[in-house]
Amino acid sequence: MTDRKEGYFLYHSIGQYPGKEADLSKAMAELASVWSAPDDQQWSYMLGKRAEFIDLWRALIDARERSTTTCENVTQGVHMLLTSLPADRLRGRTVLVAADCFPSNHFLLSRLQERFGFDLKTVHPRQGASWVADDDMIAEWDSDVALALVTWVSSTTSHKTNLENLATHGRAMGSLIGVDITQAAGLLPFSVEEPEIDFAVSTSLKWMCGTPGAGMLYVHPNLIAECRPELRGWFSQDNPFNWDIDAFDYAPDIRRFDNGTPAILPAAATVPALKWHATIDTRALLHHNRLLCDIVIEGTDELGLTLLTPRNEQERGGSLMIDLTSEGIASKTLATLNAAGFSADIRGTILRLSPGIQTTEEATRELVNLLGKSLSGR
User: Is domain 40-278 classified as CATH 3.40.50.300?
Assistant: First the structure.
C-alpha cells in the first residue's frame, strides 16, 4: 500500500501540510524563471525572498527587527554564536547542556571546549528517568556557568522544559541563555521575550514544514553588540558594497552574523511553508495534536507498553516515544505500519509518533489497532 497522508506521524522529522507539493513546485518554478532570465533582476528577487523568510520567522518567535538571520542548521547557528563571543565570556568557566539535547549540539560543544577554554558540563537524567529534569539542570547551574544551551523540547522523549523557571534561574546566575526550539517551533507558542533569552536556534523542518538548510539564528540586540563573528565577509558590513579591504566594520545589528553571499535557495524554498503556517489556527493545530496523542497514549497503556514521553501535556511537545523493548520487535512493528501506509520511525527500540495537521483521528485509531496486532505475538 502507498503512503497515506492521513497516516503521517513524522512531524518530528519532516513536516507536511495540505498543498505543500504544489506550493513548493510553484515557488521553485518561479525562482527558476527569475534566476534564468537574461536581465539584472535576480538579486533583488532572491534577497527579497530571504528577507521574507526572516520576517516570517521573526513574527513567529516575537523577535525585534534586525535580530534574526539565516543559517544552514542549528549546529551551525550555535557555532556562529559561540565563536563570536568575547574571549573572556567562556574561558575558564562552564557551558551547561542536558544529555538529552540534540546530539549534534553536544558533538560541537565537546569539540569547542578545548579551543575556547571552557568546561562542558553535561547534565544526565537521574537514575530511572528518561529525560533531564529541570530541577537537575538548576542543581548544576551555578554562577560559574557562562552559557547554558537549553533544549526546549527533547528529540528523544518530547519532554518540554519550563523555560520561564530555567531563564529566571539563569538570569540570577548571570549566564547567557540559548534555546534550541527545533522540536516544537510551529506547534507550541514561543517568544524570545517571554521569558527573555539571549539567543535561539531552529531549523524550518518538523512542524514548520519547510526544507533542509533553512536554519534560523536569533540573537538579543544587547548581545549582538558584544559579538564579533569570526566567519565574516562582505555581507557582515552595514554596507556590503564597501570594497575598501582596510576599512571593514561590522554591521550594527544581526547582519554582522552574515558572511559571504548567503545561501538563499533553502530560504526561498521554505517561504511557502512559513506563509502557510502564518495563516493557520495554531491553537486548533495544537488541540488536534493533543487529541490524537491522547488516543495513542490510551492505546499504549492498554497494550502494556512503556511511554517514554511525559503524560502531562504541559510537559511535552507534540511527539510520543514508545519503548518496544527490543530492536527486532521495533523493526518488525515499523515494517507492519509502513506496509499499511503509515509513516513513522524508530530509534533503536523506540517507536516515534508525531501526529500533525494531515493526520486524522480515524487513522490514529487504526494505527493503535495495528500496533496491537503486530505486538500480539511478541
Answer: no
- In three-state form (DSSP H/G/I as H, E/B as E, the rest C), the secondary structure along the chain is CCCCHHHECECCCCCCCCCHHHHHHHHHHHHHHHHHCCCCCHHHHHHHHHHHHHHHHHHHHCCCCCCEEEECCHHHHHHHHHCCCCHHHHCCCEEEEECCCCHHHHHHHHHHHHHHCCEEEEECCCCCCCCCCHHHHHHHCCCCEEEEEEECECCCCCEECCHHHHHHHHHHHCCEEEEECCCCECCECCCCECCECCEEEECCCHHHCCCCCCEEEEECHHHHCCCCCCCCCHHHECCCCCCCCCCCCECCCHHHHCCCCCCCHHHHHHHHHHHHHHHCCHHHHHHHHHHHHHHHHHHHHHCCCEECCCCCHHHECCCEEEECCCHHHHHHHHHHHHHCCCECEEECCEEEEECCCCCCHHHHHHHHHHHHHHHCCC
378 residues of the chain, pLDDT tens digit each? 456 899 999 999 999 999 999 999 999 999 999 999 999 889 999 999 999 999 999 999 999 999 999 999 999 999 999 999 998 999 999 999 999 999 999 999 999 999 999 999 999 999 999 999 999 999 999 999 999 999 999 999 999 999 999 999 999 999 999 999 999 999 999 999 999 999 999 999 999 999 999 999 999 999 999 999 999 999 999 999 999 999 999 999 999 999 999 999 999 999 999 999 999 999 999 999 999 999 999 999 999 999 999 999 999 999 999 999 999 999 999 999 999 999 999 999 999 999 999 999 999 999 999 999 998 865
Q: Using alpha carbons, select from 326, 264, 252, 261 the residue that is nearest to residue 51.
A: 264
Question: What CATH number does domain 5-18+281-375 carry, 3.30.870.10, 3.90.1150.10, 3.40.718.10, 3.50.50.60?
Answer: 3.90.1150.10
- Which part of the chain has CATH 3.90.1150.10? 5-18+281-375
